[in-house]
Write a structure and sequence with these properties.
mainly alpha
Length: about 50
């Protein structure tokens, strides 16, 4: 069993430690392309914030 067996838990402390929090707003069933686009957009947004 992996560490994410209880991924549907509502424990707020657990939510803070999730390794996949960066994917919470990716549509269920998204493919590799959609996930890469999402990650790229987040990275670009973070870069813009760092420049400001």
């Amino acid at each position: 069993m992996n560490d994410h067996a209880d991924a549907d838990t509502t424990d707020p402390d657990h939510a803070k430690t999730r390794d996949d929090d960066h994917l919470t707003d990716v549509e269920p069933g998204a493919g590799c392309t959609e996930i890469w686009e999402h990650l790229s957009e987040r990275r670009n947004a973070a870069d813009v914030e760092d420049e400001e």
